[in-house]
Design brief:
Blueprint: E1 5-9, H1 12-30, E2 38-42, H2 45-53, H3 57-73, E3 78-80, H4 90-93, H5 104-114, E4 119-123, H6 126-129, H7 133-139, E5 144-146, H8 150-162, H9 171-186, E6 191-194, E7 212-214, H10 215-229
Parallel strand pairs: 1-2, 1-3, 4-5, 4-6, 6-7
Helix pairs in contact: 1-10, 2-3, 5-7, 5-10
Length: 230
């Protein structure tokens, strides 16, 4: 039997893409129309943002732990969180978690190294790109990380929080990401991390100046393989 995947959701669009990827791509491992059992719990995004805005990462962790406990009661075997930003709270709550977690940045760093990348650009909310979540995980594998500059961080954050999380996808947003990624390419990056789980809804290998590391789908695929091999 496959393991039961628990999804600790934060923003709806990213969680939905992760869930859909598990269900659709599960057929490659489990057979037609088959995938592991999946349960998801989602506190409102606003509850997370209220805590993030005031820098209350302990409060963010409490919400994640609340979801973890509910998913454990539903029978999940392990947990994933398709939200890069709130991984800042994961290390603090992991010792108290009822279930083990797959860390999204571990999955992405492992993939980047396996694909031979050496220097990855990072996109995501300003809370993510100003954190050490990705620089630390990449450094452990001998990889470098480039952050957006201050102006780029603000505009990317605005696009994510005012548009993408609401399911609003504009050509202007795609153009802006292409501009930022193009600058990173000129400055020596060989790949780009789509470090907000909504960014893959508008950016991919076909429209990005650099090869993309799609954090949402990479996490979903890692969860499928873990579920398949127990």
């Amino acid at each position: 039997m496959a393991q039961h995947i628990g999804i600790v959701a934060c923003s709806a669009e990213g969680a939905a893409l992760c869930y859909r990827t598990i269900c659709i791509e599960g057929a490659e491992l489990f057979g037609p129309h088959r995938h592991p059992e999946v349960s998801m719990h989602n506190h409102p995004l606003g509850e997370y943002m209220n805590r993030i805005y005031r820098g209350d990462w302990q409060g963010v962790g409490s919400l994640m732990l609340s979801s973890a406990n509910k998913l454990a009661q539903l029978g999940a075997d392990f947990l994933i969180c398709p939200d890069n930003t709130i991984h800042q709270a994961l290390a603090e709550i992991e010792p108290r978690s009822p279930l083990p977690w797959l860390h999204i940045a571990d999955v992405v760093a492992q993939t980047a190294a396996a694909r031979g990348f050496r220097r990855a650009g990072l996109t995501g909310t300003r809370y993510l790109v100003e954190s050490n979540i990705y620089p630390e995980k990449l450094k452990l594998r001998g990889l470098e990380c480039m952050r957006p500059n201050a102006a780029e961080r603000e505009e990317i954050d605005r696009i994510i929080m005012d548009e993408l999380v609401y399911g609003v996808f504009k050509p202007e947003a795609i153009s802006y990401f292409q501009q930022v990624i193009g600058r990173m390419q000129r400055e020596g990056c060989d790949s780009v991390i789509l470090g907000c789980t909504e960014i893959p809804l508008i950016m991919n290998d076909s429209n990005s100046p650099l090869p993309t590391l799609d954090t949402t789908r990479l996490l979903a695929r890692a969860a499928l393989h873990r579920a398949a091999h127990r």
